């Protein structure tokens, strides 16, 4: 932690960029709230492996995101199985790796398969 603080003191631009991000627990709460709100049975949701990080996006800009898995009940009351997701905090957008969209699957794989999320 001391080394991280020294780096931030030596690099005020980096410190300013990082100050615009939410604390990890707030970022995770935002992801949970947004995902749960879009489900048929939001009270049945089970989350696992939730991790909030700031990593470079495709343009090499720091981006805050939450990765994890979600499992919820369908209309028949059965759990559908764990689905991996990535939630981009500032954009308030979530992508699920559910096999329905090659683009969404690729985004989740690209951002949540990084070593910092393992």
Topology:
Layout lengths: L1 H9 L1 H8 L4 H14 L8 E11 L5 E10 L11 E6 L4 E5 L4 H11 L6
Antiparallel strand pairs: 1-2, 2-3, 3-4
List keywords for this structure.
single chain, 118 residues, alpha+beta, four-stranded antiparallel beta sheet, disordered N terminus
Could you characterize what this model shows?
This protein is α+β, with helices and mostly antiparallel strands. It has one domain. The protein has helices spanning 2-10, 12-19, 24-37, 102-112; strands spanning 46-56, 62-71, 83-88, 93-97. It is globular. The chain starts with a helix and ends in a 6-residue tail after the last helix.
The number of domains is 1
Helix content: 25-40%
Major pleated sheet: 4 strands, antiparallel
Radius of gyration: 16 Å
Unreliably modeled segments: 1-8
| Helix segment tally | 4
Task: Give the structural class.
Answer: alpha+beta
The gross shape turns out to be globular
Please report the distance between the alpha carbons of the first and last residues. Answer: 20 Å
* Strand neighbour order, sheet with most strands: 1-2-3-4
By DSSP, the count of extended strands is 4
Series of H and E elements: HHHEEEEH
Short description:
The protein contains four helices and four strands. The protein has 118 residues and is of the alpha+beta class.
